[in-house]
Amino acid sequence: MTHRLQLSGITKRYPGVVANSDVSLTVLPGSVHAVLGENGAGKSTLMKIIYGSVKPDEGTVAFNGKTVHIRNPQEARALGISMVFQHFSLFDTLTVAENVWLGLDKALTLPEVSASITAKATEYGLDIDPSRPVHTLSVGEMQRVEIIRALLTRPQLLILDEPTSVLTPQAVEKLFVVLRLLAAQGCSILYISHKLHEIRELCDACTVLRGGQVTGVCDPRQESNASLSRLMIGAEPPALDVRELHAGAPVLEVSGLTLASDDPFGTHLADVALTVRAGEVVGIAGVSGNGQSELLYCLSGEDTRAPAQSIRMDGNDVSRLSPGKRRPLGLHFVPEERLGRGAVPTLSLAHNLLLSRDDALGAGGWIKVGALRKQAAEVIARYNVKANGPDAAAKSLSGGNLQKFIVGREIEAKPRLLIVSQPTWGVDVGASAQIRGEILALRDAGCAVLVVSEELDELFEISDRLHVIAKGRLSPSLDRQDATIERMGEWMSGLWDYPENNKKETAHAAA
Amino acid sequence: MLRLEVRPQPSRGWGYASPLLALAITVVIGVVLFAVLGKDPVRGLQVFFWEPIKSTYALSELMVKATPLLIIALGLAVCFRSNVWNIGAEGQYILGAIFAAGVALTADQSTGPWIVPAVLAAGVVGGMVWAGIVALLRDRFNANEILVSLMLVYVAIQVLNFLVYGPWKDPQGYNFPQTKTFEAVTQIPRLMDGSRVNIGLLLAFAGVAAVWVFLFRTYAGYAQLVGGLAPAAARYAGFSSRRALWTALLVSGGAAGLAGGLEVAGPIGQLTPYVPAGYGFAAIIVAFVGRLHPVGIVFSAILMSMFYIGGELAQSRMGLPKSITGVFQGLLLFALLACDTLIAYRLVWKK
């Protein structure tokens, strides 16, 4: 049988780093082949080489048995290779349909493209309006557009880079059904993921990368999570401690938070209510674009239009206070976007401390540079941040290291309430475990923690109680032991108002 | 084939070398330009790069030109670093000159030397008022500050013309459109005899220090920088974007107004339709060539004033049009923008 794709001896060097070193990979027709590896292992570079957007320094690529030199993504698509990137390649100012149109045969008219998008979207349950401008979409919705765009080209080889991180469990199941169907029809799939159980469930072959080199080729169905992660990181991720809940007095109380979004395509918040007590982690699950960002803007103070008395900290109304006024009360926040919001890309790590910390400020707002650099060096050392010292620009750090720095910056402030959005988005396994460990240690020290995440596994791992946000409404709270994947998935569609759920809700309200 | 390759880190060395290379490219193109125009290139370069610095007097004239450029560009550096695009410094300069002239015209024989600070303060207020209109329209109605500030330049010119052709025209001025010459007491004190350099130069150097401290050592300046570099991060930190907008425009407007006051009560000595000399626009180039850094701006202001003086000399001595100044300014800016590519990229030779 001819191999659908065969890479041999692929090497790619960048200034200062070898991204791929003598990588070989073989994909059979109709196979779902996983590429597993931590961040920086070289997966993305390898995929870009296959997709023609990066040229390898050495090695050959063969497609359907013939050696090919794919010079650009157009040629890749002409061959039948499609890719869904982890970092979306969409133009913000264009609509969904126009973006898809850009990558397609120009013979089609825009209405035809819109119609086929709607058709594909319905077929795969990826709800999207083709006429919406991309800048109004949430991260999760943008990914849907990317997936639909790839499927529309009827590929023979479909490359998916971390496709499920923003989907509900049901949508993941649906996607898997689609992928299995595609594979059965003969389309090969290259599936890049961190999620070991997904790979084991879906894929029939797996190539593991570490540090740009292949460290193993296996059949994931024969492997365990532990054996796969050993191949990937060389050791098993440290286990988290489990402990009894010792929640104290309420720190954050939100009630009657109703707010129309100022973005025409944003999500309106409807009567959101939640409580976070000292010494507990409350998780908010949900598919992105269901009001998470709007809620976080209100909680952090970046949006001060919330109704009076709707957000209280330790009993005091903070709904109209700016972030700078909330911080002295003990509210610290780690936003989802690290570069550009949680940190200024071009400023040094030391100067990025000043965004939320004022320890190095003297009288009249004088910046004590020496103290500031020392403080940054301490955060770098204590949180194991791999960086070129306190003067390294924030953008020179990898996503995981910058996240460790930002989390460290906020935790070192000894917050009374820490709000974290997507704590481990795009962060490798080792750093994820460290960040989760830090969050739990903070909880044990008596801090109230609110975590918003799209990764259910993560929420199950660290939360004491869970809420689900859907279409701007927040579900009642569930204790972790009562939360199952099925139930959470149902709630993610906004279905928690059924009588049986109401009973539970009353029980919780009474408790 | 030559290719551009992204550097792993921006090069520090090229950060400093790029302006020098840009200057060299400007000189080379200038030589070609002189040759094409049938002039002696060596003589041309002499006029631009040697004549303005060859004597103490020439140097002092260089400083006279550099002072307003430096002061305006310092304000613009704060403004541009805050991501506020005030390109109407020329208008704020004119209003500064008008306000300063208004105070200077009240002086008579009995006026004391207190009038000088009053004249300069009026200049600052005038620039702030004009820039404040921009800030207000942007703040209240989200009007584009680039367009508003630029349009206000032309309004400012008309206000100036109205005054010098109308109410403020010197009755003994043979109907020339100009005010009477200000009383001697309003004259900005000169630093030394025999040169036109005045205390404006000292104010400019104090401004360099003040802007450096503000931007790099104070929390308020940090807030301005963050607002310019990453607006979402500024919002996250809780820095008010309205405050940053007003600060940026009032600082740059005030600086331009101060320059206008210094000019009208200094070298010019009266209000005429020729007060707008393009300093406000040239200062935009000065600010960028100086990398929006207060110390860099000192050098670029001196360079730009060499072009001003060189252009005038080229007109009188070589019979070239004065617009050669603009050609050199433009060349320098283009060359700099091109050379700046080398900071983030390097040239590699690949087959």
Explain this structure to me?
The complex is a heterodimer of chains A (511) and B (351). Helix content of chain A is 33%, strand content 23%. Chain A has 511 residues and is of the alpha/beta class. In chain A, strand 14 and strand 15 form a beta hairpin. Chain A has 17 helices and 21 strands. Chain A has helices at residues 43-50, 73-79, 96-102, 110-124, 139-152, 169-184, 196-202, 225-233, 292-300, 323-326, 349-353, 369-382, 399-411, 429-444, 456-462, 485-492, 499-510, and strands at residues 5-14, 17-27, 32-36, 58-63, 66-68, 81-84, 157-161, 188-193, 205-210, 213-218, 250-259, 269-277, 281-285, 311-313, 316-317, 331-334, 417-421, 448-452, 465-470, 473-474, 478-479. Chain B is mainly alpha-helical and 351 residues long. Chain B has 2 domains: 1-39 and 323-351, no CATH class; 65-319, ABC transporter involved in vitamin B12 uptake, BtuC. Chain B has helices spanning 12-36, 41-50, 56-81, 89-104, 115-141, 145-165, 200-217, 219-229, 231-237, 241-268, 279-289, 294-318, 324-339, 341-344; strands at 2-6, 345-349. A two-stranded antiparallel ribbon of chain B has the order 1-2. The mean pLDDT of chain B is 91. The chains are: A alpha/beta (511), B mainly alpha (351). At the A-B interface, helix 10 of A face helix 8 and helix 9 of B.
